[in-house]
Amino acid sequence: MLHDFRSRITITKLKKAESALSQAFMLIAEENGGSLAGLFTDGTGIGDLGNIMPLLSTKLVFIKACRDNWGDICMSGHANLWNLLYTRDLTSALGTSSEGVMADGTYIRVILSDTNCAAVNYKINGVGVACGMIYVFTTTKNVADSSNNLVLGRDFFAFHFIKDGRVIVYGGPSSNENISNGWCDVTQDRMFQGIACTYKVFMTDTINY
């Protein structure tokens, strides 16, 4: 019963975040002629991480916005969350990012993959149209408590944001790592193996894997 209750809260927060992010990115695209291409910059490192969070902050309300290189501000004191993110095979790909915490405590990390929105990890008609990735952490667990087991695909999820401003659930048919190819296995100690389950959550409205 407790697991079901927590799962329900997680799904509600995840869908709320997806809706808010979708509206924000679509509005930003509309203000840029219907495209995100060439709009975002990721800066040069600590202290200069580009304009993603400043732009998002004009459309979304964050109780905390962070623009440091490795999450030191938003994840301060949350060693368990840190270990979840940085001991997986995404470590070398994280690089510069923009981060924020929404009013309900949902943690958002935005990674820019291609300023021209032509990254091939999401394709339409065989053409790469991905701008980057959005990682969403929605757990009801106490992330500061190292005894809590945080699971990729149960506590931590992902989305693509693409050239036309849409936010796409990660793990679907057009994702490189999709559930039809077996990319939803929370028992594997691999970042993308777990977060591909995001698509399954949206298709089944459950976390029963």
Describe the structure.
The chain is 26% helix and 21% strand. By secondary structure, it is an alpha+beta fold. The protein has one domain. About 8% of the residues have low confidence.
Comma- or semicolon-separated keywords:
globular, 7-stranded antiparallel β-sheet, 21% strand, alpha+beta, 209 residues, 5 helices
Q: What are the segments in which pLDDT stays under 50 over at least 5 consecutive residues?
A: 68-73, 86-96
Compute the number of strand runs.
7
Number of helices: 5
Q: What can be said about the biggest beta sheet?
A: 7 strands, antiparallel
The secondary-structure class comes to alpha+beta
End-to-end C-alpha gap: 16 Å
> How would you describe the shape?
globular
* Rg for CA atoms: 16 Å
Strand content: 15-25%
Q: Helix share of residues?
A: 25-40%
Helix and strand run: HHEHEEEEEEHH
What does the average pLDDT come to? Answer: 76
As for the number of domains, it is 1
SSE topology:
Elements: H1 2-30, H2 52-56, E1 62-66, H3 79-86, E2 98-102, E3 107-112, E4 119-124, E5 127-137, E6 156-162, E7 167-169, H4 191-195, H5 197-204
Antiparallel strand pairs: 1-2, 2-3, 3-5, 4-5, 5-6, 6-7
